[in-house]
Amino acid sequence: MLPLIGSSKLLPKLLHDFRVAAMSLLHATWLPAIRTPTSSGRPALLVWADTWRVAKPAGPDITPALHPFTLNADELRGWLKDQDLLPNGIIDATACLTLPSRSLKPRNTRNSQVQSSKADQEEAPEWTGLPLQAGEPIPKNAEWWPWQVEGLALEPSAATAWLSHLPLSGRHPDLGDELRWWSHMERWALSIIARGRWLPQVELSKGEGYPHRARWVPLLNREDDRRRLEELAASLPLVATCALPWREPTGKRSNRTTRLRPEAMREANPIASCRPRSGRLRVANLLEELVDAQLRKEFLVNAEGLDHLLASWQQALGSETGVINLSSEEAERLATASHHWREGVAGNVAPARACLELFSPTEGKELWELRFALQAEADPTLKVPASTAWATGPKILQLGEVRVEHPGEVLLEGLGRALSVFSPIERGLDNATPETMQLTPAEAFVLVRTAANQLRDVGVGVELPPSLSGGLASRLGLAIKAELPETSRGFTLGESLDWSWELMIGGVTLTLRELERLAGKRSPLVRHKGAWIELRPNDLKNAELFCSANPEISLDDALRLTATEGNTLMRLPVHLFEAGPRLQTVLEQYHQQKAPDPLPAPEGFHGQLRPYQERGLGWLAFLHRFDQGACLADDMGLGKTIQLLAFLQHLKTEQELKRPILLIAPTSVLTNWKREALAFTPELIVLEHYGPRRSSSLSKLKTNLQKVDLVLTSYGLMQRDIDLLEMIDWQGIVIDEAQAIKNPNAKQSKAVRDIAKPIKTNRFRIALTGTPVENRVSEVWALMDFLNPRVLGEEDFFHQRYRMPIERYGDMSSLKDLKARVSPFILRRLKTDKAIISDLPEKVELSEWVGLSKEQTSLYQKTVEDTLDAIARSPRGQRHGKVLGLLTRLKQICNHPALALKETTVEGEFINRSSKMQRLEEILEEVIEAGDRALLFTQFAEWGHLLQAYLQQRWRSEVPFLHGSTRKTERQEMVDRFQEDPRGPQLFLLSLKAGGVGLNLTRASHVFHIDRWWNPAVENQATDRAYRIGQSKRVMVHKFITSGSVEEKIDHMIREKSRLAEDIIGSGEDWLGGLGVSQLRELVTLQND
Amino acid sequence: MTNSNPNHSEITTALGEEGLGQQPWWVEQWMELINSYRFKKRLERAWTYAREGNVTSIRFEGRRVHARVQGTGEDPYKVKLWLDVLNDEDWGYVLEALTQKARWSAQLLAGTMPADIERAFAASGRRLFPFKLQEVRSECSCPDKANPCKHISAIYFLMGDRFSEDPFVLFQLRGRTRAKLLADLAEQRREVLAAIAAAEKSISNANQNNANDLAIPPHPAIVDPSLWWRYEGSLNADLVVITPAMEGETGLDCAGELPLAEEPRFPEARQKFLCHLKEQGQALAQKAMLLAMTAGD
What we know:
The structure holds two protein chains of two kinds.
Chain A: E1 24-31, E2 44-51, E3 65-66, H1 73-82, E4 90-103, H2 113-121, E5 129-131, E6 143-154, H3 156-163, H4 177-194, E7 198-203, E8 213-218, H5 223-234, H6 262-268, H7 280-298, H8 308-318, H9 328-343, E9 352-359, E10 368-376, E11 383-385, H10 386-392, E12 397-399, E13 402-404, H11 407-421, E14 436-439, H12 441-457, E15 461-463, E16 477-483, E17 498-505, E18 508-510, H13 512-520, E19 525-528, E20 531-534, H14 539-549, H15 555-561, E21 568-569, E22 572-579, H16 581-590, H17 611-625, E23 630-632, H18 640-653, E24 661-665, H19 667-680, E25 686-688, H20 698-705, E26 710-714, H21 715-720, H22 722-725, E27 732-735, H23 747-756, E28 764-768, H24 777-787, H25 795-809, H26 812-822, E29 826-827, H27 834-837, E30 843-850, H28 854-873, H29 876-895, H30 897-900, H31 915-929, E31 934-938, H32 941-955, E32 961-962, H33 968-980, E33 987-991, H34 992-995, E34 1006-1009, H35 1016-1023, E35 1035-1042, H36 1046-1056, H37 1059-1067, H38 1077-1084
Parallel strand pairs in A: 3-6, 9-15, 16-22, 23-28, 23-29, 24-26, 24-27, 25-26, 27-28, 30-35, 31-33, 31-34, 32-33, 34-35
Antiparallel strand pairs in A: 1-2, 2-6, 4-5, 4-6, 7-8, 9-10, 10-11, 10-14, 12-13, 16-17, 17-18, 19-20, 21-22
Chain B: E1 10-12, E2 22-24, H1 25-35, H2 40-51, E3 55-61, E4 64-69, E5 77-82, H3 88-100, H4 102-109, H5 117-122, E6 137-140, H6 150-165, H7 169-173, H8 178-199, H9 201-208, H10 220-223, H11 251-255, H12 269-294
Helix pairs in contact in B: 1-6, 2-6, 3-8
């Protein structure tokens, strides 16, 4: 039997001293205007949140069922306040939203007769189920049902103010994706306002009871705005617009409870669902709401000197509701005039547009051809010639998936607009169904140079021949061929390449002489090698300049030119870069287009490398040859330590290891490094520069460093001893858990970056980390400054160029550029990568070696001394119990002194009192960052409670703890929630006994055994909660072992499978009682290593 | 008719001093029509009358113009104006002619009144615009026996301007609204196309399998309900930095003059209205850019 020591009753309610943040997800849905007797019929934004709870399936009754997973208005208010997201001007509201739902039969079908007859009276709903939540696995047959959702409503102007402060980029665990969509919409609205792309309009009443209104209407005719509309419409998360026109029971969005009678309710709101439709018009309408709300709020009315009509219009434009105070006749007149005014600038939002396609003349001909076509807005590559549009007549034209009604009219309207900016096409519209026309060279030039953009801005597509399309390829640039010189090994960056180049424009090459000849024609469009090209004024000058300079290029240039598109050499864009086979190999490896050549484990390495580890080793060696710093950022558990040790051994074997290497790591992993180095690379001579016995003077350190290959130290000591360590001529600096230097201004990171700078001789730099560094813009600068300072430049520049645009606005082009720059130096493989997964066993066991803190050490030693004496003196009959007690207490000390001392709070320095705790926190940090889920097993219930309190405090989120006294229903809820809640807890604490069997917790990809049990079978059984045969993901099993302590002995026995171990497996802990004092002493005494 | 300038859009009229400024061609044409009137004195009086704001309302109702003019009496006089309506046969000819040139439909659809529209009407032997003022029929409730009386003449003056609010009202006066005309044109075009198709059998095959019969493909969110919540987009690069309009590129710049007939007693009103909108537009643009700069903080 497994003893579960202690009882939870001993523990006061220390867990609830602080508020555990509810795992809710915030949503925002637009509520269209509904006119009721008490409301002005204005639209609003409904802010609501869903959260996990146990709920009974429900279905629509007289009204849609209440969404069982939403926070009520008060909870929501409190939660928004905590998140610092509470909007101004909110009112409690209920709306009816259509949501994907899961069909479920009501749970209590075995009801007593009384209940069921009662249910009959109330007519059981036709359908029952539960609404799905974002991120929940989608059932095969999802249905769509209306749900009553409680939330807070914001009037449009309050909504825009709130939306403009939402983050524009990044995933936020508390914010639904659609909030980012909303924030992008709002940003677009701001851009429309900043560019003044709006016109005021008058809109007539939509029917009886609706007023005429003055509106601010965005103009969406320009090419960029049309593209944006298509993008945002195509990516519209439907939850943003899934509200049904629905009258609340109260008849108004407020707290008042004058409920409608059920019959009235039923009549007002037939049970219906909204059908997802094309988003284009909806999104255009939403944009209009956002633009209108903001302009209306800020507009200052000044009606002085205006006649009655204009004065009323202006007044209404600045009023909250927009209601215009005019007779219908006058309002109609304003509506007609304002509509005609707008018509001159922008047309309606349509799924397709007219398109003009220009074709260059065939050989020997003068005239250019312009063809008319119809083009889908959503995908400009979907086109049909005008003839098809004409032939379609009154039918619907299908352009891919896009349906175009009245294609002929759409085409004609576009041509009418085209005519207003490019008059030559008048000639082409002389017959009833024009399809094509001819342009003179002069007209074609006007089209290419200026009219094309103007046409696009009135909403007409223009397709030019590729060589004239205005893109980079149509500019004069270079085509380069390069190769490493015969004699070169390709290992130094400054090295010159053998190369040749040609001028290139519009996809064809030309010589300088040809360019001169063409430029001499003084015609803007010239023909060369069959392609029409456009020469620009400075082209000839730039080309001449380049020819006379005839520069050399180095490997460094080649790497830069091939990193991203659009790179230039002396102002000329490089259109083509052809690398010879040997250079190509270097470039591919550098840009990681090809996996680096694997390097087998070097001689003297005691262990096996998995194939991906050999590739990692090859990559480290590859960058080392170029003297480039490298960051190995493999997922946790893929063996970064092993790859680095293999690399050091590789240097040693190649006799390239001449001076010592400094490895800096958090204190908590130094023990682990020492252990692993001893196991895998026994040839490496390791010096520990930590603890009180470390060298304190330069001469002493230098003496100690003789013949040493690797020096281990902690970040803290490195910073403390920087003056001393700086004096050593290190061959390389390695930093483990490199996220430790993420804050560029912290003293610690400055010290690390300083010590990495070479003094006299080269110093290689390697960083190890398990976090996705390349995704964290704020952290990448400090890392690169450590690895390769030139790559990202000074910090201020980096901040302006990359960090601001990416972090604040999510600018993808800057991010792409940044990634291209840093990606050659970062190798990150995930355990889920296909190439990796096949190399990994299904369970990866990782030993986490940890030391003991000062407090732990002295407590441990004192306990051993005191108890051993007592055991020796006690009668045989009591000895067994005492031995067990000792072992338990020692294991508790290894976990945390607080556990052994029966403390009940986790205040103050809790984390620093235990090395194991520190290491655990570091690993969990990575797990949580990666969005993974983990099971944590312990054999001590008290430790579970302490740990739960600590972890909840640390991550401010709930960590369930399942132990012996957890009730059965609670257990099931914990398990369900862990397995199913899309935003469920990432960490799950279990007692080894209660949680070790029978549960299915396959959502976890990490298992932690915080303390050791004598029997590996028990541990394996627990591990199998997360792991199931046939599962495609890999499970990482972390076993904590306190070095030198009883835990190490246990681990040793299990590993060695000694006879003793077999006894243990057979008989639990009974045998311990039979140990002699000296055997016992050997087992428990702390070994100093 | 002196439609000499084929570059339809804008012509400076000789009446600039009277506050009309740049006018679309049809306003000019209307003014020419009035100026061809023989009784200059009466016109002058009518102009003063109009300018002083005695015309209290002008309404286009179906094929007629209804107006009220405050005369010397207590109640305003009721004025009616109308043109001879084209009958269906005439319209038939007009439509046939309009269908000949795609440009006419194109411009009408894009909200432009084609400068040479009369050529289409010529096919029916009729006109869109009245050729002589006598063609404009009128009635006034004033005791004055002369027609046009000064009340009617005052309406003449204001009519031109009212045409620019909606030039297509002319079609309405001739018997068809713009919407009806466009629908008829589409129908006519279909017939022409059908005729062509019949002539060239080959085309028809291509259209047989056309889209009408195809079922609407299900919305992607029906296939994948997770689209209800998913948004993977990142901020469009153009929205990273919010920039102001380039010179002359705001909506107000592009839209130009507000086509609203002037209220004679407030000759500056339109200008003031637009100026104020522009000023406010700039101030609001500034605010929007400031707000955009602090976003995400």
